[in-house]
Amino acid sequence: MISQTVLVPADGVELPGDFVVPPSAHGVVLFAHGSGSSRHSPRNRQVAAELRTAGLGTLLMDLLTEGEDRRDAVTAELRFDIPLLGRRLVAAIDWLDGEPDVRGVPVVLFGASTGAAAALTAAADRPDRVLTVVSRGGRPDLADDALEHVRAPVLLIVGGHDEQVLRLNEDAARRLRAPCTLRVVPGAGHLFEEPGALDQVAGLAREWCAERMGAERR
């Protein structure tokens, strides 16, 4: 198991990330955290740990520098700058292509909240590298016109009690031209803090990725 802190050059800055690769990884999952969060998000880290048991590498990275993060804590503007966040995810996808342990393996994008929009934007920009996109409590609607250019299959996971976000996901699903599946976790809110809710998210993500990987190998 390779586990290291890395610096990913992106958009003129360097962004820290936690890069973990199990032996003979057959894919790598790049996480895009949500509003006001970071690579230390306990929810994303729990999902990442589950995906690694399925033989996938993971990269959890900050999408903002420390200075940008302090600015965003006051203005809350950068977390909604989807083109900026999308460009940084694209740079991370390109960076992964230079890493010997995962070079050429399929890339999965996992986005939460506003990070889901950034993930979809990056998927539209790198259609030949992104195998699939998974969204947890995401705002895919914020990807705007990029939705219609996504080619990779998309899994949208939403809490049953997160009614407004569920409606936004339903609207975005209708705009997507790529194959899309919407899964609702009963009784869960936006952060999936209810007992067992995040376990269901991790299980859905693992199953989905396994299916997409299997289809890729056929």
Structure description:
This protein is α/β, with parallel strands linked by helices and 218 residues long. It has 6 helices and 8 strands. The chain has helices at 42-52, 66-75, 82-96, 114-125, 163-175, 197-217; strands at 2-10, 13-21, 28-32, 57-61, 107-112, 130-136, 154-159, 180-185. An 8-stranded mixed β-sheet has the order 1-2-4-3-5-6-7-8, with helices on both faces.
Notable characteristics:
alpha/beta; 218 residues; globular; 38% helix; eight-stranded mixed beta sheet
Secondary-structure topology with pairs:
Blueprint: E1 2-10, E2 13-21, E3 28-32, H1 42-52, E4 57-61, H2 66-75, H3 82-96, E5 107-112, H4 114-125, E6 130-136, E7 154-159, H5 163-175, E8 180-185, H6 197-217
Parallel strand pairs: 3-4, 3-5, 5-6, 6-7, 7-8
Antiparallel strand pairs: 1-2, 2-4
Short description:
By secondary structure, the chain is an alpha/beta fold. It contains six helices and eight strands. The protein is globular, with a radius of gyration of 16 Å.
Series of secondary-structure elements, N-terminal to C-terminal: EEEHEHHEHEEHEH
Shape call = globular
Helix content: 25-40%
Mean pLDDT: 94
Strand % is 15-25%
Provide a count of the helices.
6
Structural class, judged by helices and strands?
alpha/beta
**Structure summary, number of beta strands:** 8
Strand order across the biggest sheet? 1-2-4-3-5-6-7-8
Looking at the chains present, what oligomeric state does this protein adopt?
Answer: single chain
Runs with pLDDT <50, length 5+?
A: none
Let me know the largest β-sheet. Answer: 8 strands, mixed
Distance between the termini: 27 Å
Radius of gyration: 16 Å
